[in-house]
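Translate sequence into structure tokens.
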Amino acid sequence: MQKLELTWIRKGEEQRVEPRILLHESSMDYGDPNSENMLIHGDNLLALKALEQEYAGRVKCIYIDPPYNTGNAFEVYDDGVEHSIWLDLMKQRIDILHHLLSFDGVFFCNLDEIEHAYLKVLIDEVFGRKNYIGDIIWRKRKGGGNDSRYIALDHDYILVYVKNQSKEVHKKKWRVSQSVEYLRRYNQVDKDGNRYYWDTLARDGLQNPIPVTVLCPDGSYLSINSQKSQATIEEGLQDGSIRLTGG
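Result follows.
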């Protein structure tokens, strides 16, 4: 059967990694002894293989920050391996990471523009393209790009995947925390303790505005362009979720 895939030299010829066992070094223990937290020292592929025995299908969130393959040689690792070797190393690890994720698990991978496009296609092959959520852009520096010959590259990418994109699995929308400054605008509290703020319904800059006309208490008419329909606004005026103010 033919299929579209990313290929490279020696793909599919990876040496099989045998199951491994983690050895507990009690002299390195710290904090709550009943915690399930672990700090693992050693080769990451062998560590993942050891974790696979007990944690396959149980991990809800995975974040990795692999070598970007920039061509630099650091003290702790080589960041300049041949392209096909880098892909080969990543494929072995991505396979196990996918196996570790729970059915509702989420996977994040941080890298820059050098291998981003290639790794995206590789992860598509393991996770399935339909389970790709998108890229988070992380701005890693501020200011201009005087050290750049062509354009200023001021950001990295975080590839985001899920094990299963079904809405039956992820029933709630993902939410992110807001800054304290942003939350200050929610200066009202309803009877259930939920915070909210009053905002204007007039939206003159809309591409497809809904013209709405409201009869005011003094007998005058207020006409606005809105995102909400006439019926929705009239219902809100009745239940108190929409109000008329002077000004």
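Note: Residues 67 and 227 are 47 Å apart (CA to CA).
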